[in-house]
Amino acid sequence: DASKLMKQQVGKAAADRVQSSSIVGLGTGSTTAYAIQFLGDRLKSGELKDIIGVPTSFQAEVLAREYGIPLTTLDVIDRIDIAIDGADEVDPQLNLIKGGGAAHTREKVVDTLAAEFIVVVDSSKLVDKLGSTFKVPVEVIPMAYAPVMRAIEKLGGKPELRMGVKKAGPVVTDQGNMVIDVKFDSIDNPAELEKTLNNIPGVLENGLFVNTTNLVLVGEIKDGQPSVR
Ligand code: DER
Known about the structure:
Layout: H1 2-15, E1 23-26, H2 30-45, E2 52-55, H3 58-66, E3 80-85, E4 89-90, E5 96-97, H4 104-113, E6 114-122, E7 136-140, H5 145-154, E8 158-161, E9 178-183, H6 190-198, E10 203-206, E11 208-209, E12 215-222, E13 225-228
Helix pairs in contact: 1-2
């Protein structure tokens, strides 16, 4: 289908930008999954050599191993050359909302460390203003989720605890925490909101990525054909 085609195209376009001997931040989500697959293909063909991946989630780690990408950890390496990751919203300033996959805490660590952070999205993720189509995910330590919900309400947000789909009870992150999704009527200053949210005691990380993106690759269907810009 069109969405899958767009994701494959943009995932491949990102994977094609990786050079041999790079340390690559491997993002989370269905679009980045194609970039990881195409990186594996390039390694297998011998066209790409000696890359090492830093995964941003258990999902990314499992995919990287499946596609034969060697992995490392942040205490072993001293740099990340390029990170490829998805997003749930991208605004005209290339600020993002991420965290649809509840992986934004490790993603923000890896993506912000990278010399070049490339975002891969299909055109449905482009918005004029952050928060118009997606709630802001906030990772919270379990013992504090109730006071954090109250503090977010005081900020004018409408918080809701993210519940599992095939799991009874709340979603649990790779760190063993919970996620609160917050609807804000209008996010006029994402940089300020990002700091305010992370300053609430009990909050580990939120999904606002401000002034972190170097390049956004957008998959779209033009004249019936998938294309990337
Ligand atoms: O959880 C995340 O931040 C993912 O990158 C998500 O935002 C994008 O996932 P998708 O490519 O499956 O839409």
